Amino acid sequence: MYRDPVESFEPLHSPLAATRTLRVGMIGIGTVGSGTFRVLARNQAEIAARAGRAIELVIVAARNLERAAGIVGDSVALTADAMQVATHPDVDVVVEVAGGTGPALDWVLAAIAHGKHVVTANKALLAVHGARIFAAAREQGVVVAYEGAVAVSIPIVKALREGLAANRIEWVAGIINGTTNFILSKMRDEGLDFAAALAQAQALGYAEADPTFDIEGIDAAHKLTLLAANAFGMPLRFADAQVEGITALQGLDVACAEQLGHRIKLLGVARRQAAGVELRVQPALVPSGHLMAHVNGSMNAVMVKSDAAGLTMYYGAGAGSEQTASAVIADLVDVARLDGVAAAQHVPHLGVHAHATKALAVLPRAAVHTSHYLRVPVHAVGQIQAVTACLAEQKVPVRQVALAAERPGIGPQVLVLTGPVVQGTLDLAVHALQARPEAAGPVVTLRVEALEG
Of 116, 123, 158, 223, which one is the catalytic site residue? Predict the structure, then answer.
């Protein structure tokens, strides 16, 4: 039923006869893989013109060969053995879109060892094992490209390493998980609590049956790790990232943030400081007039502050089959342009300049310096002064204070926006507040990000 992949390769006769076709093997043909096949087939003439040579998918590895045949027809060889794709002599570049950090690592390392370029949308694989993968790629003189692993349709990796190559990057911040952004948008727009918004996201296909990686901030942290490495030339430091998801976020705080002129977004922030780099994912308040506050639904956006270009912002779809395929194929075009030239001219590998900045440490949580939102439950509305007095005693600057709008069944709540303060100082102030007799419950804190130049 299926052609023998070893005997199935035929040269593609193309108007670009003077340049050999780039032959692609793909591991996985699920959401991203099927989108990649469709876009390659539909736009083959435009892609070849832009790449300077034809790009042909010649073999696919899939668990379900019958399903795969229904997608690719008889135009592509099929195999159930992913390692056959990774090591096949007639494949120039391996596209890994199966996901995971187990077998995928073996496939990618095998492809590199056999002198093949690799394109992947697997952010978890790179965040966890990237140092090993990129070291192997440098040794073999091949490209590992990963635009689809970071922000789907947004070409942010290319922007950082090429468009902003003249700049010293000061910080990168973004909404880089579409699932959580959809949930937060529903909580704000429809007044849903977290559980109801998550259920709606699952019903509509925006969230997986097991949404842990998304809602706990892990997926965003994988992507942020890659962004930081590109922005600062630092090694991949996923294990050191401070990660907080949205599972504990209450609808009350979403509403109170609105009252204070802010919206809550799950942000990934990588910021260069004199003592090191902040590398953190957390729900944070953003001023409601800021562009980032208007990134809604499953959309993504990344903002970069650099010394010469200033503030730049990149916006696009945060999920989708063909949206991710667009990034995967853009990487293939880069490989097609550079395959066969000197290795030093390849699309830069992550960490290739890490020796210049390897001393950059990831700052501990206590050292992060931001403004904060506090919601302090109190026994009576007249106790607002006790809250501000306690914060003053703890050397926490207060920028704005208000009483939350009354809500049925909820007692008085003092809302505070602080000025910039080190997290360790804020933690001590919260401890002191909760020990006060005026406190009627746990103090809720969230960071506030101005995202200004």
Answer: 223
